[in-house]
Design brief:
Radius of gyration: 19 Å
Order of helices and strands: EEEEEEEEEEEEEEEEEEEHEHEEEEEE
Helix content: under 10%
Family: Belongs to the aldose epimerase family.
Organism: Guillardia theta (strain CCMP2712) (Cryptophyte)
CATH class: Mainly Beta
Pathway: Carbohydrate metabolism; hexose metabolism
CATH architecture: Distorted Sandwich
Number of helices: 2
Keywords: Carbohydrate metabolism, Isomerase
Number of strands: 26
Protein name: Aldose 1-epimerase
Strand order of the largest sheet: 18-15-20-23-26
Distance between the termini: 39 Å
CATH topology: Beta-galactosidase, Chain A, domain 5
Largest sheet: 5 strands, antiparallel
Length: 313
């Protein structure tokens, strides 16, 4: 898909995955700002979820267990003791149907009853459109049976270019006053304010400095770790005119703003989801990527808009 401004996005039907996202820097030079594999077949074995749509439920479900309609279900545990991003063969590993639409592509997928342990058939659509420099993803799901659905887009962004190294120099702002603390990567149930902590990203902040602060607070100095945490997106109040013009559609809220100063590239993320998983590629370790590149720790960042992890429980 290419827009009138020169911005373009390349998407494949395996996982409805974003393969490339080319945008201009301040000099007008185009650069690909998403991480990914050179060989498209590698996406079928990928455990980093580069660029795909993850589901039926994104993020973790504790012990791979949930109760729906009074019945307990056991899901595929593909992340230690937990279920992650829909299981071993989640939506990111499935081949979706695809059709062209105005300014974009629409992908569709039928997830059958008992796939990865989930109850009920579930019909999913993902519509990507590109107008100017605005890339929009609209995801919908329909099921005739009670079943949890929590879809997320899992691209890794590096605004300096996918092969440029780490993102520690990026400035990150999250429109979130609270986050959900975790134990063993599962939320404890507490919703905690970010003020006075490394999780306070309400103002533009150098990512590298915030990761250093996070390491100090967790007693992990000098080794940096990184973020892999769910933040509670701040609700923005709509004016009366905005409510009228929205025609009943769910309200979009600012989620994050990312700036890379050298290239001048800026990315603004908006969503109607209540949470965002901010992940700083803590576990990339020599992954071979596009054009002979090698992706290392903190080589990109993910902003996975979502419902809260393990919220089914």
């Amino acid at each position: 898909i290419r827009s009138s401004t020169g911005t373009s996005v390349e998407i494949m039907n395996v996982g409805a995955t974003i393969l490339k996202l080319n945008t201009k820097d301040r000099t007008g030079e185009l650069g690909d700002i998403v991480l990914g594999h050179q060989d498209e077949m590698r996406y079928l074995q990928d455990t980093n979820y580069f660029g795909g749509i993850v589901g039926r439920v994104a993020n973790r479900i504790k012990d791979g267990r949930m109760v729906v309609g009074g019945k307990e279900y056991e899901l595929d545990c593909n992340n230690g003791a937990n279920h992650l991003h829909g299981g071993t063969v989640g939506f990111d590993k499935r081949v979706w149907n695809c059709r062209r639409i105005r300014n974009g592509l629409e992908f569709s997928l039928l997830s059958r009853d008992d796939e990865e342990g989930y109850p009920g058939d579930c019909q999913v659509t993902a519509r990507y459109t590109l107008v100017g420099d605005v890339l929009t993803l609209e995801m919908r799901a329909r099921s005739m049976s009670a079943t949890p659905v929590n879809l997320a887009q899992h691209s890794y962004f590096n605004l300096a270019g996918h092969a440029s190294g780490n993102v520690l120099g990026h400035d990150v702002q999250l429109f979130a006053d609270k986050y959900t603390p975790m134990e063993q990567q599962i939320p404890t149930g507490e919703v905690r304010g970010v003020e006075g902590s490394a999780f306070d990203l309400r103002e533009p902040s150098c990512l590298g400095k915030k990761i250093e602060q996070l390491a100090r607070e967790k007693g992990l100095c000098p080794a940096p770790i990184g973020f892999d945490d769910n933040f509670v997106v701040r609700n923005r109040k709509q004016s009366l005119l905005e409510r009228i013009l929205s025609l009943g559609r769910e309200q979009m809220h600012p989620v994050a703003k990312v700036v890379e100063r050298k290239t001048g590239r800026t990315m603004l993320v908006e969503s109607n989801a209540p949470g965002v998983q901010f992940y700083t590629a803590n576990f990339l370790c020599g992954v071979r990527g596009k054009e002979g590149s090698v992706y290392l720790q903190h080589g990109g960042l993910c902003l996975e808009t979502q419902h809260f992890p393990n919220s089914i429980n």
